[in-house]
Write a structure and sequence with these properties.
Layout (H helix, E strand, L loop, with lengths): L2 H20 L4 H10 L4 H22 L1 H4 L3 H24 L3 H4 L2 H13 L1 H14 L11 H16 L4 H11 L5 H26 L4 H23 L3 H23 L1
Helix pairs in contact: 1-2, 1-3, 1-12, 2-3, 3-11, 3-12, 5-9, 5-11, 7-10, 7-13, 9-10, 9-11, 10-11
Length: 258
Amino acid sequence: MSPADAALVAAGAFMAGAMNAIAGGGTFFSFPAMLMAGVPPVTANASNSVALWPASLSSAWAYRHEAMRHGRWAVLLAILSIIGGLVGGLLLLAISNQTFMRLVPWLLLVATTLFALSTQVSRIIRWLKQSLNIAPSERPGSIGGALFQLMVAIYGGFFGAGMGILTLAALSIQGFEDMQEINALKNLTSAMNYTVAALTFIIAGAISWPHTLVALVTAAIGGYVGAAFARKLPGQWLKRLVIAVGAILTVIYFIKSY
């Protein structure tokens, strides 16, 4: 690995760590950087997951107080993220991601749209519950939301791009309204997902250590810096940033895939 490649991977990983802490979509920065540095696609994907692992932990730690306001629900989401990360990681090792890559822009489009319209969707869900005489819960969260999070976790273990935005959309639709708490739960679930996926790839020997070690350090720094920045943003501005990131990622991945 040349100094230029090392600098490219380091810069991409720093931006990835920061963006994952703020709004998700960090894989767009780190994964292409790995590819440009000459790492094969599947190895780059696995190495990227391992590299972003410490960054996800540092972001989750920075948001730990906000995440734990939802106690049992936060623990359930963390467990589902662990299960999904393992399943997704094993799928990546067993299946080529070329076909799945073509689905990525569509998933991002759906996730961004759901997040942008999450308030309206939540109102529709509440109206449906009232029509069906389903008693409303005093706290957000549902079985359907938990299953959605499991699917997001499987996707995250397999590829990861847009996982944060999908999680934000799922939480918003379930009735979570405080953007800082939503971001905190997103960082918690991402940390659990990255942990089990990274361990799976390490055990399988599917990563490039030179590139991964360079990215590990700068991604962790970026993750903490990004989380600290996000906590200072007004909720409405943070939501707008998430929508902007999702829209940009959707366009880019449509161009890349088609």
